[in-house]
Amino acid sequence: MAFSMYQASVPVFLRVLGNLRAVLQKGEAFAGEKGFEPAVLLNSRLIADMLPLTKQVQIATDMAVRGSSRLAGAEPPSFPDTETDFAGLYARIDRALDVVRGIEAAGFDGSESRAIDVPRRGRDPQRMDGQSYLLQFILPNLFFHASIAYAILREAGVALGKDDFIGPL
Predict the structure, then answer these.
(1) Residues whose CB is less than 8 angstroms from the CB of residue 154 and which lie 6 or more positions away in sequence, other chains included
(2) Are 23 and 165 in contact (CB under 8 A)?
(3) Is the CB of residue 114 less than 8 Å from the CB of residue 71?
(4) pLDDT digit string, tens, across residues 75-118
(5) How many CA atoms lie within 13 A of 154 on its CB side?
(6) How far apart are CA 159 and CA 26, in angstroms?
(7) Domains contained in the chain, CATH given
(8) Cα→Cα distances 83→36, 111, 112, Å
């Protein structure tokens, strides 16, 4: 069976974002049970020089949206980073899921060799072929930021386990 860029990306993006949403819901419920403001969790970091939970979710959604759009040869939509509560993060994840679901598999045909310019802050874009972009940039970043969001909530005391991150099989 040939390697399918669509199958290696879209189902993974949908699963990770869906599981991230469920993890956040557990975090919000935890704040309610413990009687503290949800903003405490949303602004939490693993360590002072890391980004807070809200930003981790924003970046994870950006990875899925931008990755799937670029692989399909489309200009990725821009999501402003304006979320300040759990409802805003759920809405962002839902928008990201809609974008990813809306990209047709045929758009991925030939994307493994498609040249993709990856924007980088303060530096020139880096050109990558689509397969390298997916396997060496998008997937590692998506998993990193989803993992850090999970770790922030777990460190705060939210009852999470590996099954929450991986989700149902």
Answers:
(1) 160
(2) yes
(3) yes
(4) 999 999 999 999 999 999 999 999 999 999 999 888 999 999 98
(5) 13
(6) 8
(7) 17-166 (1.20.120.450)
(8) 19, 32, 33
Distance CA 68, CA 16 (A): 13
Residue whose C-alpha is closest to residue 61's, from 7, 163, 137, 141: 141
What are 151's two structure tokens? 């770790």
CA distance 20 to 60: 9
Phi first, then psi: give them for residue 137, nearest 5 degrees.
-125, -60
Task: Please give the structure tokens belonging to residue 8.
Answer: 């290696």
Alpha helices in the chain (DSSP H): 5-34, 38-42, 53-71, 86-101, 130-132, 139-155, 162-166
pTM above 0.85, yes or no: yes
How big is the chain, counted in residues? 169
